[in-house]
Design brief:
The complex is a heterodimer of chains A (about 625) and B (about 210). Chain A has about 625 residues and is an alpha/beta fold. Chain A has 20 helices and 19 strands. In chain A, the strands form 6 sheets. Chain A has a 6-stranded mixed beta sheet. Chain B is α+β, with helices and mostly antiparallel strands and about 210 residues long. Chain B has 2 domains: about 100 residues, Alpha-Beta Plaits (2-Layer Sandwich), CATH 3.30.70.580; about 100 residues, Alpha-Beta Plaits (2-Layer Sandwich), CATH 3.30.70. In chain B, the strands form 2 sheets. In chain B, strands 1, 2, 3, 4, 5, 8, 9 and 10 form an 8-stranded mixed beta sheet that branches. A two-stranded antiparallel ribbon of chain B has the order 6-7. Classes of the chains: A alpha/beta (about 625), B alpha+beta (about 210). The interface between A and B is medium-sized, with 30 and 33 residues.
């Protein structure tokens, strides 16, 4: 990338210019003469967030391994930079070549969070690419998207040409190979999209007609031009052999998660009823410990990182965790490399691992009981008892830890004031456990309780639930604040519910909500997952301006018979299973984890043998 | 090997890396190259590296120096090449050696630069030929005025297409006069755009610094 004076002058006026210039160790630069598809991998958040994303590292490697394809990175500029780009009429560029976004054949977004939607539009616009799919008539500027939000991407349906449902390693390659062919043979855009729709895991929003009832609910979703009635998500069946980026780009400037992230397994055996990732990433597939050891060492050597993190939805559930940790410690300890294990469950086994791993530095301990009473934990199928939690805390306090963070949600289905006050009781019990167990009480203890508002998400047993109103959330926050007011060792943090309301509306939004996203963006909305940039009022004004009601999407409970906007997305877990789980929730009945007994969720049909081995 | 020095350049895209970015990057480069830096003892071990006279973000250099220590003996002549295979774009190791003097001996820097959107060479020449050049800037306690004239030597301006080319020898430590400070001294006559490169480093008597 050439830094001309115009751009150099601009970079001198913004914060942290290193994030806009690329040139890091490990970036892939190809000779344009050998490239027939220019692919812009766009992450709708800052460099610091995007470069921390494992999915991006994986697909960057997978795509650049394809002959003729050059995948480059594009991130959302921070406010000062975005303003300068607009003022100076400089288009948003890709880091490797410095070429503007409008020079690319494929512009693909990875979206894991609804609050990134306005940033997607902003990046397209900054890059000189028309935001609406209908305005892009040629084969160039094919705008695609993948990531966790694809399980209901309807609010963005008018902006994307093609979406990937599920894991991208295989389907991305198939679609790009088709695109190479289309470009070579001079197909038009409709033909390419019709052909792409035949690839499993590909969703072409423009090939579906949506009809609505007079009450605003969805009446029918109709596929046309040969597109499948239901798009089935893709997975990588043999996860042990799945591509892993052992030679990723190593940022020169600091990012959020600046370390090797080793993906231990995909999916989750727990069926927490509020959890979208736990339902949409099934079935569970893991890597062998020996594979992980090899990949971990290789990546540490290639990057020079001093920290390795085990990543998965619930690391304690990895069968070979003990062997893996021992093997990694043998390598890491003499080299001064630290190992971190997030998402551990509050049980004895996990605490034992924790002790072995964190012998040097004792970072904070975090548990997520999610609800304050056993009754409500049973409703959400969070298989953690008070005894488990207090036991884990006891072991930790005995081992010298003097801080613990506890995460909860407020507004879960069936929650009563008793459940809310149960959070305070539980925190106090943790405090008394410390009093009993701590070898040295003179240092004191820090117990932090955090609550956020429950957001019902598609493809979960709670997808039909109403979100509680902001006022009601704040009332419950007040209740808890008062209950904890006298407990000096307990700090209570609560997340504001303003963003949760918008997130809830977008998560279960239909196609019409796209107009709202566009309106908010036009009124200046971008980087809205940052409290620096989020304003609720813009959304509260945009919904009625587009003839819609935010409460229709966020706080309305839906009957299970209602056709949901995402019903043409098949994430492998069946609707029947979700309905059954919802009933069990209301009965307060636990569903065992996948290993203790198959609940017949339907995800195993994605596997050739039809049996999960997670 | 406890006292070693690396001379390196920082140009192109790497000029936007901050001092902290550079420290982090160097540590990882050594680690990737399998060259074991010595770490400090203690709870939060950190690599024993220090960069003499950190550059400001945006300024390039052909003569940066980093002092470091290794836990094992290495062929110093082969070290730059070994490191360069693992560098990000824009940073290049030039020479590794046992330093003949302390980093504090680095006293003068030869810099060159371009200045655009300001006055012409004649104006700048006259401006910097004055016997005293006061610069007022923020200091720890209130504002402070220094005369930077004694700290600027052999300054030359010449007109070029679209601006003015400049070369000067600036005092680098006690007191420090950076190219940015020269621009500050110009006040309202400062150019709209400038960029500088450090070319060579000297000791107090203008003998080459190593």
């Amino acid at each position: 990338m050439e830094m001309n004076e115009h751009i150099d002058a601009l970079l001198r006026q913004v914060q942290r210019p290193a994030r806009y210039v690329g040139g890091e160790y490990g970036q892939v630069v190809k000779d344009k003469a050998d490239v027939d598809v220019r692919f812009a991998f766009c992450f709708p958040d800052t460099y610091e967030i995007g470069m921390s994303n494992l999915g991006m590292k994986i697909l960057y490697g997978v795509l650049n391994d394809m002959p003729g394809v050059w995948c480059e990175r594009v991130f959302a500029p921070w406010g000062d930079m975005a303003e300068k780009l607009r003022q100076e009429h400089i288009p948003l560029w890709a880091l490797e070549s410095g070429d503007p976004l409008y020079d690319f054949d494929v512009i693909a977004f990875s979206i894991g969070y609804e609050m990134a939607y306005t940033t997607v539009l902003d990046m397209l616009d900054l890059g000189g690419v028309p935001i609406r799919a209908a305005e892009r008539t040629g084969l160039e500027h094919m705008v695609m998207a993948g990531g966790g939000c694809m399980c209901n991407i309807e609010p963005m349906a008018d902006f994307f040409d093609l979406c990937f449902l599920g894991e991208g390693e295989d389907v991305d390659r198939e679609v790009l190979a088709l695109y190479q062919k289309a470009k070579r043979e001079g197909w038009d855009k409709p033909r390419f999209l019709r052909e792409a729709a035949k690839i499993e895991g590909v969703y072409i929003p423009s090939l579906y007609d949506i009809r609505y009832n007079t009450d605003g609910t969805v009446a029918a979703i109709t596929a046309k031009d040969g597109a499948p009635a239901k798009v089935r998500k893709r997975i990588v069946e043999d996860f042990d052999a799945c591509y892993f980026p052992t030679k990723p780009v190593v940022p020169s400037t600091e990012i959020v998660h600046d370390r090797v992230s080793l993906e231990v397994f995909r999916g989750c055996i727990r069926g927490c009823r509020f959890c979208q990732a736990g339902h949409t990433n099934r079935p569970v597939r893991s890597r062998k410990a020996e594979t992980l050891l090899r990949l971990g060492k290789e990546t540490l050597e290639n990057t020079g990182y001093q920290e390795l993190n085990l990543s998965s939805l619930s690391t304690s559930d990895y069968r070979e965790l003990s062997e893996l940790c021992d093997g990694l410690l043998d390598y890491c300890r003499p080299r001064g490399i630290s190992l971190s294990l997030p998402s551990l469950r509050a049980d004895n086994f996990s605490m034992d691992i924790m002790h072995r791993v964190q012998q040097v530095r004792k970072s904070g301990l975090t548990f997520a009981p999610e609800a304050g009473t056993q009754r409500l934990r049973d409703v959400i199928n969070k298989n953690v008892t008070e005894e488990d939690l207090l036991n884990s805390c006891r072991i930790a306090f005995q081992g010298g830890w003097n801080g613990v963070k506890l995460y909860f949600m407020l507004g879960l289905p069936t929650e009563t004031d008793e459940d809310v006050l149960g959070i305070a009781d539980l925190a106090k019990k943790v405090y008394w456990t410390w009093r009993e167990a701590a070898p040295d009480r003179s240092r004191g203890v820090r117990i932090t309780v955090s609550t956020s508002e429950f957001i019902p998400k598609p493809h979960t047993p709670f997808q039909w639930e109403a979100q509680i109103s902001r006022e009601e959330y704040l009332r419950r926050v007040k209740l808890l604040t008062d209950a904890l007011a006298k407990a000096k060792s307990i700090t209570y943090n609560w997340h504001d519910a303003e963003m949760s309301l918008v997130e809830a509306a977008l998560a279960r939004g239909d196609r019409r909500v796209g107009a709202v996203v566009e309106e908010v963006w036009k009124n200046g909305g971008r980087l809205e997952s940052w409290s620096d940039y989020f304003t609720l009022d813009r959304w509260l004004e945009a919904f009625p301006a587009c003839g819609l009601d935010i409460d229709f999407y966020a706080t309305r409970g839906r009957p299970t018979e209602e056709l949901q906007p995402w019903e043409h997305m098949d994430c492998a877990v069946s609707r029947r299973h979700l309905e059954r789980e919802r009933e069990r929730a209301y009965e307060g009945v636990l569903t065992p984890d996948c290993r203790a007994g198959c609940a017949g969720c339907g995800a195993s049909r994605l596997l050739k043998e039809g049996v999960c081995r997670g | 090997m406890d006292k070693l020095r690396l001379k390196f350049s920082k140009t192109g895209r790497a000029v936007y890396l901050s001092h902290l970015d550079l420290m982090r990057t160097m540590q990882r480069v050594f680690s990737r190259a399998g060259v074991p830096l010595k770490y400090s003892e203690g709870f939060n071990p950190h690599a024993k590296i220090s960069i003499i006279l950190p550059l400001s973000v945006g300024t390039a250099s052909l003569c940066e120096y980093m002092d470091f220590a290794l836990t094992e003996d290495r062929d110093l002549a082969a070290l730059p090449e070994a490191l360069n295979a693992y560098m990000p774009e824009g940073i290049e190791a030039l020479e590794a050696y046992e330093p003949p003097c302390k980093g504090a001996e680095l006293r003068w820097l030869l810099v060159e630069g371009v200045m655009k959107g300001g006055r012409d060479a004649a104006f700048y020449t006259e401006f910097f030929a004055r016997d005293t050049i006061p610069v007022t800037r923020k200091a720890k306690r209130g504002m402070r005025t220094d005369d930077i004239a004694p700290a600027i030597q052999a300054v030359q301006f010449s007109d070029m297409e679209g601006g003015v080319a400049v070369k000067a020898i600036l005092h680098a430590q006690d007191p420090t006069v950076s190219p940015e400070l020269m621009m500050t001294a110009l006040g309202e006559d400062a150019p709209a755009y400038w960029r500088f490169t450090r070319l060579e480093a000297f000791q107090e008597d203008l003998a080459p610094f190593r």
